[in-house]
């Protein structure tokens, strides 16, 4: 990871996930769900948007928006965990999501990685790459991929 899990989590105002994973391994304690959110580095995102040069104020604005989006995503996931009475902590990592998640899972010594699939079609998946496919083949623990709900099935 380009930043450690704790540094990225602290910078985004989210509790680091590594402590939760270590606490879950202590004798007599139940397992803890670690909500992990991966985000691209802002300077890389600007380059991908076709900006040859982005003024520092624009990068700061992008960084603040990205941190707010991360906080909202993590908060929604933690709310679901609370509703289900699951003990949970959270972390935000920065970098290429495939590599950042893979490294975080290894650092946390996770027992299971559960992640969602965006439900991309075959062509989009081939062009954009699939984080879930990459992690299914490279993560150091078992991986459970949750498909998006089928809209026709839920009518």
TrEMBL record:
Record-annotated membrane-spanning stretches: none
Q: Which CDD domains match?
A: USP_At3g01520-like
Segments of this protein annotated with the region Disordered: 1-20
Q: Which InterPro entries match?
A: Rossmann-like_a/b/a_fold, Universal_stress_UspA, UspA
Taxonomically, the superkingdom here is Eukaryota
Tell me which Pfam families the record gives: Usp
User: Locate the UspA domain: which residues?
Assistant: 33-147
Q: Which protein is depicted?
A: UspA domain-containing protein
Organism of origin = Triticum turgidum subsp. durum (Durum wheat)
What does UniProt list as this organism's lineage? Eukaryota, Viridiplantae, Streptophyta, Embryophyta, Tracheophyta
């Amino acid at each position: 990871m380009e930043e450690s899990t704790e540094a990225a989590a602290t910078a985004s105002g989210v509790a680091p996930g590594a402590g939760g994973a270590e606490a879950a391994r202590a004798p007599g304690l139940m397992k803890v769900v670690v909500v992990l959110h991966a985000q691209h580095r802002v300077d890389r995102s600007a380059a991908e948007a076709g900006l040859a040069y982005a003024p520092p104020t624009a990068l700061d604005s992008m960084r603040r928006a990205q941190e707010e989006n991360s906080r909202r995503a993590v908060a929604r996931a933690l709310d679901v965990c609370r509703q289900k009475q699951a003990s949970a902590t959270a972390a935000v990592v920065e970098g290429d999501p495939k590599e950042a998640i893979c490294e975080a899972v290894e650092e946390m010594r996770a027992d299971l990685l559960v992640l969602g699939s965006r439900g991309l079609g075959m062509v989009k998946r081939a062009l954009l790459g699939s984080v879930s496919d990459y992690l299914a083949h490279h993560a150091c623990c078992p991986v459970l991929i949750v498909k998006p709900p089928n809209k026709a099935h839920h009518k």
